[in-house]
């Protein structure tokens, strides 16, 4: 039995918790042949047709819908029911365009605000980056889930709103999102889940180049993987964060499930193509089932699939839609964006300490303790620039903390770190997405 339709169970929309995968969305559809309950959601729309905006009040009962709940729709004439759908559709399109018109006005207000603050270079620009407001999207998702009294599943309402806001973004500004291509990679899936279908997606061949595309203004946003629940940090992303001026605007989790795909049978496979991250995540499987096959790193799992499809005795580890382990992605953009805390934010920063001073790292970490800040993640990468210049072994420390960069205690901590470290860089503050809970 599909329990997704249970309206009262807790549900957290994308941008709030785990993004539903394509398979989750498919599963949200009611089982074939199941009788449809009366449509209170539609009744709400019909009743509120002439009102400018929905409120949190539950929709007023619709006489027609109530009638159909006592007399089963099965006895109604199909043509009549379709006429009703046509009428609701007309109202929906009208309301959607009302919403879109307001969104265009929101876009103009943002444009004026960025012009008056002198931060409006040519598009796609730091100002166009502000078109996407993850904090506000979270509010909208939470609101529509609260308003939803079924029979639509919360996941269905959220998916519809993802697309409504995607269209809304693209009406305000032409937005290009760079991701690790080609199409079909996990990053592409994560980008679609984050931004919806109406924005322009730009496939890029390496993670480092995704940063470059956004830095150079060829894309408004980039989406890069930060860490995987099995394989840990994504080194290419952390290394690029050391040098970039871009800021993190949002985070996003994508359940990952890898497939081994080949034209040959398992025991004849001699070469396996994949992205290094996918190899890392599937190490145990390969060691057990294909210990002698050569593992060949390529730029993306989608490219691996293309190569393996053409070659005998070759296989690829690539993307599939089902849920498995989880990769966390972050959205990067020029400028700091939304400076309003959502009330539940995280901040990523990096710093370098003088490793020759005893207790230097300890002193740096104590700053957070003294400011009452909880750390949720710590990682390090070799500081290649400093090591080349000043000798080995300097490390860049990446610390993620609970709080927003404008919070007084975070400001104090950054000041404290700046006084004691060689370098400090705040990489961005973004609304926190609760870690998805395992489904099995
Ligand atoms: O509220 C805003 O700032 C908007 O631009 C409107 C809107 C929306 O359609 O609701 C669109 C895009 C943003 O990412 C968030 C919300």
Automatic annotation (TrEMBL):
Pathway field: Metabolic intermediate biosynthesis; prephenate biosynthesis; prephenate from chorismate: step 1/1; Amino-acid biosynthesis; L-phenylalanine biosynthesis; phenylpyruvate from prephenate: step 1/1
GO molecular function: chorismate mutase activity; prephenate dehydratase activity
Localisation: Cytoplasm
GO terms under biological process: chorismate metabolic process; L-phenylalanine biosynthetic process
EC category name: lyase
Cellular component, GO, one term: cytoplasm
Composition skew (Low complexity), residue ranges: 17-31, 54-71
Main location: cytoplasm
Domain Chorismate mutase: start-end pairs: 72-176
UniProt catalytic activity: chorismate = prephenate
All copies of domain ACT, residue ranges: 349-431
Record-linked SMART domains: CM_2
InterPro entries per the UniProt record, alphabetical: ACT-like_dom_sf, ACT_dom, Chor_mutase/pphenate_deHydtase, Chorismate_II_sf, CM_dom_sf, CM_II_prokaryot, Preph_deHydtase
Taxonomy, superkingdom: Eukaryota
Matching Gene3D superfamilies: 3.30.70.260, Chorismate mutase, Periplasmic binding protein-like II
Domain named Prephenate dehydratase: residues: 176-351
Keywords, alphabetical: Amino-acid biosynthesis, Aromatic amino acid biosynthesis, Cytoplasm, Isomerase, Lyase, Multifunctional enzyme, Phenylalanine biosynthesis
Residue ranges, annotated region (Disordered): 1-71
This enzyme's EC code(s): 4.2.1.51
Function text: Catalyzes the Claisen rearrangement of chorismate to prephenate and the decarboxylation/dehydration of prephenate to phenylpyruvate.
Protein name listed in UniProt: Bifunctional chorismate mutase/prephenate dehydratase
